[in-house]
Amino acid sequence: MLEQIAFALVFIAGVSLFALRIKAIRRNILLGRDDDRSDNSSARWKTMALVALGQSKMVVRPVAGIMHILIYLGFVIINIEVLEIIIDGVTGHHRIFAGIGGLYDFLIGSFEILALGVLVSCVVFLARRNMLRIKRFHSAEMTKWPKSDANIILIVEILLMFAFLSMNACDALLQGALVQAQAEGAEISEKLSHYAQAGSFPISQFLNPLYEGLSVSGLIMMERFMWWFHIVGILGFLVYVPYSKHFHIFLAFPNTYYSNLNPKGGFNNMEAVTKEVQLMMDPSADPYAAPDPNAAPPAKFGAKDANDLTWKQLMDSYSCTECGRCTSQCPANQTGKLLSPRKIMMDTRDRIEEIGKNMDKNKGTFQDDGKTLLGDYISEEELWACTSCNACVEACPVNIDPLGIIVDLRRYLIMEESKSPESITAMFNNIENNGAPWAFPASDRGKWTEEMNEA
Amino acid sequence: MSQAIHVPTMAEMLAKGETPEVLFWVGCSGSFDDRAKKITKAIAKILTHAGVKFAVLGAEESCTGDPAKRAGNEFLYQMQAMQNIMVLNGYEIKNIVTGCPHCFNIMKNEYPELGGNYEVQHHTQFINQLIKDGRLQVKDGEIFKGKRITFHDPCYLGRGNDVYEAPRSVLQQLDAELVEMRRCKKQGLCCGAGGAQMFKEAEPGNKEVNIERTEEALEVKPNVIATGCPFCNTMMTDGVKNFEKEGSVEVKDIAELIAEAADLL
Fold first, then answer.
1. What is the mean pLDDT of chain A?
2. Average pLDDT over residues B122-127
């Protein structure tokens, strides 16, 4: 009974901490500007099924892609086992689903095989990340917390899978001990009687030598320890994940659902600008008309801080797992420029987190801290290195769009601060004066037609 | 070519009470840059040869606003867009062929919301259609026999609009070997000119993007690097010169290759 109460308390604590954190992230995401993505739900479900559930963009790199799918399948399917563990924990049963017979054996057997897959993949990923010098895992933004975050997750997953398999190994040994005791007609303790024959253990049997030396009571203690370690570990993981880059396991789904469904080359037209340009070009507009006193104050053009971005751009930032595929495909980054699309996403998330914490400290309203995303996190040099080629957008396994953020920050620089490299200003002037980015008169546009018949 | 070609403007056509099948949107590079003008002429020759009734805007054409928009100047872009839309709608234009993927992208994806609704095609798509419809025959494709051609995907045609097959299908008309670079189609590497980079110095780094891309192109030992964008053409031409390969590797637009093979130049 005491064990059940302890379990219930741990469980409630874990889930509550998780829920609180989700609430905070949701609030932060909703600090972003509006962006209507409610259209075309059938195409959206399809994108989500393909990209998030089907991981279609992960397998572009087959080795990492297939191992990632192994971990993902393991994570999703082994959760059926976690359901049993939770019910057992609350009710005091042991292996409550065992009653389903042969199917149970099959399930436990499959979980074990998946657990091995997860374990092997995590070991390979850990080695790959730390021993092979894969460039995208060692760039400037991948030091300190982002680096340890990745390693912590992999190590915890390895420990969890080891505990899960050890729990099964001890269980199987105890099942054997129970059968033996029954055959010998020996007295059977109440605790041992729990370990009735259930499940099949294709993988954990190889761990038996580790635990065979233990007495029955030692085995029971070890089985209980591994059981607790596994479930407390999972609940701890649940609380940890939304503070970590690992949050993509949840956000990948809504984030791909709300993907940009239009051709990637098309950028949005800013409505506020359209209104002003229409007014400028309308010959009947009164240039001296007083502004409508009821009109909303004009919004900033472009984005200076994280909360000037849209909610979808902020969701993108929380969905980023810092894999760096975007950065490794970025032409600017490959040629040694400062720009890294991954850093754009990490900076956006770090800044909106900071804004959120600021609000929490100040009773829900943001107090100016003298910092902004543009300038304090992302520099002009990074922004001006972008060729807008969409390689980062294409590379992202969860359809994050770093380019949209880069463009919105450029818009602020140009339209609010008139800050641009000199040659870009010259290009603007040429377009304004000649209708071409170079200083050629419009009257020369047709010159080539006169040269058509020259040899 | 025997007969002199006259490329009419929309104003001329309107004066004669005629309407074109398509408007050929030339673009700034194709109008003013000496190298790009050759591409423009090749497209015009192909259209003429295939019997397409087309016109240009001439002095009435103005920058689509693409470099301004990508650089963040939404005001300038929308001013350009609305002026162009007024001209285009004034002539009741329905179909547009562009000589540049940037013009193609912006008119296809960004003009509609501002009131400009047209059927926009990139010239490689239009040429592909002409061939499929039997309106254009590429009879001398064998002048490319034994040659290796590699196609550099322009970002705003490829990733930007998922057009990968039309340019390749046109190139297949030539009796050449089409070889793909390590990074092609969805994974294609930018030439370095997009996003208004064409109009500025690159940020500090250890290499120019066009050098990186040209290296990759040269790896497949091509005789011709085929392009579909005047800016990519400039960048790749510069890259080839940088490696002093201009004697053995040509950088040509697909339209030029087709015009050559159809004996139009």
1. 93
2. 98
